Known about the structure:
Layout: E1 2-3, E2 5-9, H1 12-17, E3 24-33, E4 43-47, E5 54-56, H2 58-61, E6 67-75, E7 82-95, E8 105-111, E9 120-121, E10 131-135, E11 140-144
Parallel strand pairs: 4-9, 5-8
Antiparallel strand pairs: 1-11, 2-3, 3-4, 3-7, 6-7, 7-8, 10-11
Amino acid sequence: MIELTAKRILDPELSEKLPDYGELLRILCFVKFKTSENWSQAYQGIVDTGAHTSVIPHSIWKGVEHETIGEHYVKGIVPENRMPVKVGLLQCVLLDRKGNFSKPIKIRAFLAPADDIPLIMGFKDILENFEIRINLRNGSYLMEL
């Protein structure tokens, strides 16, 4: 079982326009990637149940073992805005602050050409393999293989 972290943030632009909008919630997990010698440092990624595929910023994937298997693009809710990405094969483990960790997972992910996007943990090969429990009432956020 991996304990996830909840982070509440204020969006400065949204708060300026709508002062009563309040905080936004992000669910986060820690992930390490396989390197040629061992495992990378732990990175905190967004658990994004709306993302079909994980997205890894350039500064992270350039330093880990990966195989490029193709090219594609990422787009958000504005279809005209596309970012070209490489599609890669990597290996990772999910972990939490208590020392719990998953078995190594082979994943397909989008490898971003820049660092101006967050590390996103999507369904393909990661979230689809876990039971995810998010209980906002009692502040419990868990993933279980």
